[in-house]
Amino acid sequence: MLKSMNADAGVDYDFLMRANLAEVFSERDAVRRLTAIERLYANDAVLHEPHAFARGHAQINDAVSALLSQLPPAFVFTPRSPALGHNGIGVLKWRSGPPGGPATVSGMDVVHLQDGRIHSLFVFIDPPGQD
User: Fold this and answer.
1) The domain that contains 51 carries what CATH number?
2) 30: which of 24, 50, 73, 76 is 20 to 30 A away, CA to CA?
3) Is residue 43 part of a domain?
4) Is residue 8 in a domain?
5) Would you give the distance in Å from CA 115 to the centre of its chain?
6) Could you give the number of structural domains in the chain?
7) In 3D, which of 85, 89, 126 has the Cα closest to residue 108?
8) Which segments of the chain are extended strands (E)?
9) Is 63 contained in some domain?
10) Residue 128, pLDDT score
């Protein structure tokens, strides 16, 4: 018989990963974003993007600022489906573009959680035309 060994059974992956999209990756105000990062991410968290790497709250905040500076001001990140997760690993598919408009970019976030907070975030970008 299999025993449940899921230590994070109380973690709401969908809530956590949607909060990351809304409060971190869609937040243009760096001070509010840093407050969200401090709440959602472990102190030694790591962000892995296809061509970038950041460690710790301040570097992650700076990396998101750099990303958002390349996107039009109205662009937001929204989930394409509910997040799935178990055993400390979560997955969320997302899209970015103007609210209610077509997606300009889409992708997927994969997180590793530690004590209910994001310890590692891996960002995958879909090839063009995959949304």
Assistant:
1) 3.10.450.50
2) 50
3) yes
4) no
5) 17
6) 1
7) 126
8) 41-49, 52-55, 76-79, 84-86, 89-97, 105-114, 117-125
9) yes
10) 81
